[in-house]
Amino acid sequence: MVISFFLPTTFFCIMLSGFQGKTVEVGRAHFETENTRFTILDAPGHKSYVPNMISGASQADVGVLVISARKGEFETGYEKGGQTREHVQLAKTLGVSKLVVVVNKMDDHTVNWSKERYDEIESKMTPFLKLSGYNAKKDVHFLPISGLIGSNMASKVDSKLCSWWDGPSLFEVLDTIEIPPRDPKGPVRMPIIDKYKDMGTVVMGKIESGTIQENDNLLLMPNKAHVKVLAIYRDENKSRRAGPGENVRVKLSGVEEEDILAGFVLSSAVNPVHVVYEFNAQLQILELLDNAIFTAGYKAILHIHSIVEDSEIVELIEEIDVKKKKDADPKKKKSKRRPLFVKNGAVVVCRIQVNNLICIENFSDFPQLGRFTLRTEGKTIAVGKVVALPPPGCSIFAS
C-alpha cells in the first residue's frame, strides 16, 4: 500500500526551508513500515505560503495537522481567521479524507503532558472538524507527542512520561489508516507539479487514475503533445510501472521541458482529460473580504490540483437552499432561483471562466481533478467542485 500525507506545519522541515526556520516550498521525503510506503509532503504552515500548502495537500491522502499544546499558541491558530481553521477547511476541500491531529510540545514545561490540556484541545477542535465535513469518529485521530524528544512517534510514549495515554503512536496510526481506493485500470490522469531536464524531460506528479508503464504512449494536455514514457522513478528507484496514488517522476520523449507548465496533465491518449476555458461549479462561500459582493464579474485565484489560474465568475446560475433541500420532495420540480449576488455561507451554482486552457474533470468522475478553492488577497473565500463541463470538442459552453 502507498500513502501520501502532508504536514501543514513548520514542524517537519524535511527538504526545503526558508527564513526563520519556516517551510516555504513543499518538501518531500520517504519512509517505509512493514506494510506501507509513505511519501511525506511537508507543506508550509505560515499564512503567506498557503498556495504552497494547497499544492502539498492536493497530492495527499492523509493530513497530519500538528498543533502546539503551549498556552496561547493553539488559541492563536484556532481563533477566527487562524491558520489551523483554514488548513482544516482546505484539506477537506482538496480531498484529504483522513486527518491525524497531533498535539505537539506536550513535554513543554508549561504543559508537562497534561491530560487536561490535551482534552481541552480535542474538545475544542472536534466540533470544528465536524463542521468542516470530517466524521470525527471515523476520519480523525487525535494523539499527543513530543517532536523534540520523539515521544509517541515511532513507538508508544513511555508511561513514566504520560501515564494516561493508552492509545497508539503516530506511526502506528499512519500504518492502519485506510484510504479510498483508486482505479488502476482507469484512464491515466497525472497532474504535473514540476518538471526538469535530466538527459531528457522529466515530470513529477501523483498518479490519480490508471497505471503508467514504460513505453506507454500518452498525451500531455492541454498542448496535446504525444509523448512516450522512457522511464519511471518511485522515490529514487527505477520501476517498470506505477499505479494510482503513487508520487512519481516520469521521463518522457516527444516534448521539451520548457513547453511544460505546472497544471498540465499526463493523460490517456484514448480517453484524454477535459481541456476548458470555463466550467460550471457548485461553490460554498466561506468568508468574503470586507465590503466585497460575490456576483458576476467577481475575480479570484483558482486553485485546482496543481493549477493556479486567474478566474472570473461570469454567471450565477442558482442559489441552493441547503436547509430546504434536505426536506424537499424530489418529485416536485421547483424553478431555479437565479440570484444577482450571494453572501457568506451561501451555496451557489455558477459559471467560472479562466484566461488560459486548463485540464479539469467533473468531481463525480475524478474528484482530485474536480475540487478547488478560490482565493483573493491571500485569503480563501470559497471552496467548490466542478459539476458541468462544455460538450466534447468545445472549451466553452454554447451561448
Describe this structure in words.
- With 399 residues, the chain is mainly beta.
- It folds into three domains: 2-176, Rossmann fold; 189-268, Elongation Factor Tu (Ef-tu), domain 3, CATH 2.40.30.10; 274-388, Elongation Factor Tu (Ef-tu), domain 3 (Beta Barrel), CATH 2.40.30.10.
- 14% of the residues lie in helices and 38% in strands.
- It has helices at 50-57, 73-78, 83-93, 115-131, 170-176, 322-327, and strands at 2-8, 27-32, 37-43, 62-68, 98-104, 140-144, 189-197, 201-206, 212-213, 217-221, 225-234, 237-239, 241-242, 247-253, 265-268, 274-285, 294-295, 299-304, 307-320, 341-342, 347-360, 371-376, 379-388.
- The longest helix has 17 residues, at 115-131.
- The chain is flat, with a radius of gyration of 22 Å.
- The model is unreliable at 6-25 and 326-332 (pLDDT under 50).
CATH class of the largest domain: Alpha Beta
Helix-strand category: mainly beta
Rounded Rg: 22 Å
CATH topology of the largest domain: Rossmann fold
Strand order of the largest sheet: 2-3-1-4-5-6
What is the fourth-level CATH superfamily of the largest domain?
Answer: P-loop containing nucleotide triphosphate hydrolases
Oligomer: single chain
Mean pLDDT: 83
What number of domains? 3
Low-confidence stretches: 6-25, 326-332
Main sheet? 6 strands, mixed
Q: What is the overall shape?
A: flat
Distance between the terminal alpha carbons, to the nearest Å? 47 Å
How large is the share of residues in beta strands?
35-45%
Q: Helicity level, as a percent range?
A: 10-25%
What is the string of helix and strand elements? EEEHEHHEHEHEEEEEEEEEEEEEHEEEE
